[in-house]
Amino acid sequence: MKKNLLISAASLIGVTLLGLIFFQSKVQSSTSTTVGDSLPENQTIRIMYEKWRNASEEEVNAYFQPFSDDKKIIADPSGGFLTSIDDNYTVSKRQDWTGRDIVQSFDDPKVAATIGEVKAYLREH
Q1: CB 73 within 8 A of CB 114
Q2: What 3-state class would DSSP assign to 118?
Q3: What angle is formed at CA 14 by the lines to CA 13 and CA 16, rounded to 5 degrees?
Q4: pTM, entire model
Q5: Taking the domains of the chain in order of start, what are their residue ranges?
Q6: pLDDT of residue 3
Q7: Residues 6+ apart with CB under 8 A from 40
Q8: Phi-psi label, residue 25: left if phi above 0, alpha if psi -120 to 50, beta otherwise
Q9: Sheet of 72-75: strands edge to edge?
Q10: Which pLDDT does position 94 carry in this prediction?
Q11: Cβ distance 113 to 89 under 8 Å?
Q12: Whether pLDDT at 80 is above 80
């Protein structure tokens, strides 16, 4: 009986310690990102960072080469972006893969960014 109690107590302590180790590693990984390293609220910069974070500056410049740095864009999760040919920025209306309408404004600072802003963020991060 004492042997079973001892084995149960040892098992409980082991499981508890293992749980604490996993919890600590989760806390460390979630807090290891400093404020300066967190992704911005801007959707376009966040998407472009996810797609281009491992690219060289030359590759990024070549991708955006046809456009000036002050050109406003709205990034698409597929990796492309929307813009205006004549700089007449209005509202972007499109459908996602499920057929749901997506309406976004080029004037919304949480959605749109300039190419220059995207390049600057990629250079810094």
Answers
A1: yes
A2: helix
A3: 65
A4: 0.65
A5: 1-32, 36-124
A6: 55
A7: 46, 121
A8: alpha
A9: 81-82, 72-75, 113-114
A10: 79
A11: no
A12: yes
The pLDDT tens digits for 25-48 are: 444 443 344 444 577 899 999 999
Tokens 């004037």 locate to 107
Instruction: Please state the length of the chain.
Output: 125
- Could you report the per-residue pLDDT of 109-123, keeping only the tens digit for each? 999 999 999 999 999
Q: Among residues 62, 56, 111, 61, which one has the least CA distance to residue 82?
A: 111
Residue 110: the pLDDT is 95
H-state helical runs in the chain: 2-31, 43-52, 57-64, 115-124
Q: Can you give the pLDDT at residue 116?
A: 97
Q: Which of 77, 108, 107 is nearest to 94 (CA)?
A: 77
Per-position b or e across 97-125, b if 16+ CB within 10 A of its CB: eeeeeeebebeeeebbbbbebbbebbeee
Tell me the three state secondary structure of residue 107. coil
